[in-house]
Amino acid sequence: MTPTACLLVIGNEILSGRTQDANIRFIATGLAQAGIALEEVRVIPDKARRIVETVATCRVQFDHVFTTGGIGPTHDDITAGCVAEAVGVPLECHEESYRELEAYLGKEKFNKARQRMAWLPRGAVPIRNTVSIAPGFSIANVHVMAGVPSIMQSMFTALLPTLEGGAPLCSVAWHADLREGTLAEGLEAIQHDFPELDLGSYPFERPDGRRGVSLVAKGYDEEKVEAAGERIKALIESLGVTPIAGEPAP
Amino acid sequence: MTPTACLLVIGNEILSGRTQDANIRFIATGLAQAGIALEEVRVIPDKARRIVETVATCRVQFDHVFTTGGIGPTHDDITAGCVAEAVGVPLECHEESYRELEAYLGKEKFNKARQRMAWLPRGAVPIRNTVSIAPGFSIANVHVMAGVPSIMQSMFTALLPTLEGGAPLCSVAWHADLREGTLAEGLEAIQHDFPELDLGSYPFERPDGRRGVSLVAKGYDEEKVEAAGERIKALIESLGVTPIAGEPAP
């Protein structure tokens, strides 16, 4: 069975429109390659009650929960405490992280606010990164990462090989200068023959205004994905249009 | 009271990493300006059970639910039926939309798959757009829009003035070449004095690698936001650094 995952993006800045999300796609792509199915993403504000409830709900519903954001030294960095509460363990000083932070920052700069960063849920395993000393960690099936993209990416890259995945998600895409409505029936027939795959149809618009559609077959069984891809190609050809191979959308 | 909202992004293509989301920020920004608080975003797959349950849950929890994706003519376009089920009304042919689709496409092209697009939840009010004839609609407190950004934007722009909002979300931002840990205590003191505002601290990295932090005060009371902004500016100056005004992050 392919393990499942949920990503929680913690941060008011996405919800207010201030910031364009730059983390979801990186994590989604990495999980797909690792054979872990990302089944939901939630963007939630950095309010303690919301974080605790969401982590507690999602970690029962999915095999893994990944979080980004809220692990710095400021008052709105409350993820560690909330995750501890959701998992049901106390927050305590993680001695090794404390020493590392102190050594990195120097005793003088290692003020009260920064010392808070060394407080992790009891039993947490740090997630290393090569960009900063931000204190990412895993506790049970919850993996807590930074929100800054470069730091998150370094953490996620270190974390991913430690998680057990299934076969990677495979996909085949064909693009065509067709409208969805023209090929909907043919596509549904293919979906019917490959119930274990996701067949998607994604209209797009080229910069010059011409519209087309990308047909994508996705799943964890490579042979079936290939076979469905051939059927999609033949469907486009049967409608008198030349299929264009490739990903992403042209 | 500021009305609350949740956005549901329906689509496997974001979850598989195939597509970068291009809708969240547009909607988030529009809602903030309209005085509607976006409190959650969920990205979910186009599986009927998941859509029905999520819409049913979220429309009780928030004043408004916005959805994007899944309203085209193909087999994976199941949003209208799922929303009907979540709201508890039947899906039925919306005569006006049927006639419009038929007139637009011509009788010959208006095949079975495309006719499905005219089936809306009973009582639905169409959301117009100037880009296509995609059948967006509102039913109760659920607003269903296309996933293609240009069409979604046209629908959202038509829809937003029909919704009652509160005062718009205001924000003030100051950027500084400082690290979060240095100003965390000062910032917490300001947050303490303005409990009704969100004070956020967002580290960033310039293209040349230099790091800084953006301090943002946000809320629905413009005077208090201004006052908190002055306090933030003074805090940065007290740390011997020149505050840089503006938004977004430099």
UniProtKB/TrEMBL annotation, chains A, B:
Q: Where is the MoaB/Mog domain?
A: 6-166
Q: Which Gene3D superfamilies match?
A: MoaB/Mog-like domain
Q: What is this protein called?
A: Competence/damage-inducible protein A
Q: Which organism is it from?
A: Asaia spathodeae
Q: Which InterPro entries match?
A: CinA, FLAD1_M, MoaB/Mog-like_dom_sf, MoaB/Mog_dom
Top-level taxon of origin = Bacteria
